[in-house]
Design a protein that fits this description.
alpha+beta, 6-stranded mixed β-barrel, two-stranded antiparallel ribbon, about 15% strand
């Protein structure tokens, strides 16, 4: 018997018990939909992370002060006091291939304006930050190299700070804000950029010259970080090695001792975050796939019941010349059709559930072709795997005994 005829007979057999067929397919529908949703949420999270990483800027290397302390008690990242402005100037001078460099310090404090106050992050940086981060201005301009050199009391604010201090959408250029009771003149508002890769709101920040922050706000002579943008075509691996060697020499770190700084590249951060997200995606998808297993067991159960119910039919077919392989294919086709139909409906349900979660919960989701193919392929594999035993049992029936079955 041809495969087409086998398919037609399988459809007719499944339609005899519509309710039983629908309930059996429900397990596959739920399983495939669950896998689709889990992988869509994971892919959406990975896409969001990649977009956030791109907001850092292009060809970026970040040098952070390392963990301080000795023995079992150690401070966190940024606790050491060995990273200095002189380090940044030496890196700029001696390491080839650097386009921009920006020393940085950071604190969190209350910022007061005439009509309000707001607790926010105050970051000291250089005039190169907008170029490094590819960050355009909404109003005004960023501070200049001369402002950095003079330790000028000027500030560029993010859109969230602007909205909280002066009102949504206003132009605060020329207004005065107070940081640590010192007046700063607002000279610019950065365009909205959204959350950074680790969750902090980039728009909820006040930027001032790093020299001003160090002298007037923090009273320190060391840096928290140095951000570097490289020229196009520069190999970041070679540059990070050169920077590390230079800093170890400047900080007099003996061979074999740990660095008192940390260097991270954009590629490393992207690799760490996306690999973690990918692992979580496949972990969640594996958990969701358990329902596929349950659906497969349901298919096996129903097919075994079907073989028992149709024993006389099988005996009749075998007695009039049907081969064992014809009977096997007949029942295997029914199991595959049942699982594929459930898989197809499950893909549609998965699309709908992913879209619904994205709209209702504001979660990022992305249904990929790989997720659909994987789910559909798993549904087919489940149908073949769990349908083979009942089909083999049907094909192995003795025709005479089958005809005698009541």
């Amino acid at each position: 018997m041809s495969l087409l005829m086998t398919f037609v007979v399988a459809i007719k057999a499944l339609r005899r018990n519509t309710m039983r067929t629908a309930l059996t397919a429900l397990g596959m529908i739920i399983g495939v939909a669950a896998v689709i949703v889990m992988m869509a949420l994971g892919s959406g999270a990975r896409t969001t992370i990649e977009a956030q990483i791109r907001t850092i800027g292009s060809n970026v290397i970040m040098v952070n002060a390392g963990a301080g302390g000795f023995g079992p008690v150690r401070g966190g990242q940024g606790a050491t006091t060995t990273l200095t402005v002189e380090d940044a100037e030496t890196i700029r001078r001696e390491i080839p291939g650097i386009r921009y460099i920006s020393p940085g310090v950071v604190t969190r404090t209350q910022v007061v304006a005439g009509t309000g106050n707001w607790n926010t992050v105050v970051q000291g940086t250089s005039e190169a930050l907008p170029a490094i981060r590819s960050w355009p201005m909404q109003f005004g301009s960023f501070f200049t190299e001369d402002d950095v050199r003079r330790s000028a009391r000027v500030a560029v604010i993010g859109s969230v700070v602007r909205d909280q201090l002066f009102g949504s959408g206003t132009d605060p250029i020329g207004q005065v804000i107070r940081i640590h009771n010192q007046p700063f003149r607002v000279i610019g508002v950065l365009s909205t950029k959204g959350q950074a890769m680790f969750g902090q709101d980039q728009d909820d920040t006040v930027y001032v010259p790093y020299t001003t922050a160090m002298k007037r706000l923090l009273g320190r002579d060391y840096l928290r970080d140095i951000t570097i943008s490289t020229e196009n075509g520069v190999k970041t691996t070679e540059m990070t090695q050169a920077i590390a060697a230079l800093l170890r020499e400047r900080h007099a770190i003996p061979p074999g001792s740990e660095d008192d700084f940390m260097i991270r590249t954009q590629e490393e951060i992207a690799s760490i975050l996306t690999s973690t997200t990918t692992t979580m995606t496949y972990l969640l998808a594996s958990i969701a796939a358990v329902s596929l297993l349950v659906g497969g067991i349901g298919i096996m159960n129903i097919m075994l019941v079907s073989v028992t119910e149709r024993t006389r039919e099988i005996g009749l077919r075998l007695s009039v010349g049907a081969r064992d392989v014809d009977v096997l294919l007949q029942f295997l086709m029914e199991a595959v059709v049942l699982s594929l139909a459930g898989g197809a409906i499950g893909v549609g349900v998965g699309f709908g559930a992913s879209y619904g979660l994205s709209r209702l919960m504001s979660w990022s989701s992305l249904v990929t072709v790989d997720a659909v193919l994987l789910s559909f392929g798993c549904a087919a594999a489940v149908g073949i795997f769990f349908g083979f035993y009942p089909a083999r049992k049907a094909a192995a029936l003795d025709p005479i005994e089958a005809l005698r079955y009541e």
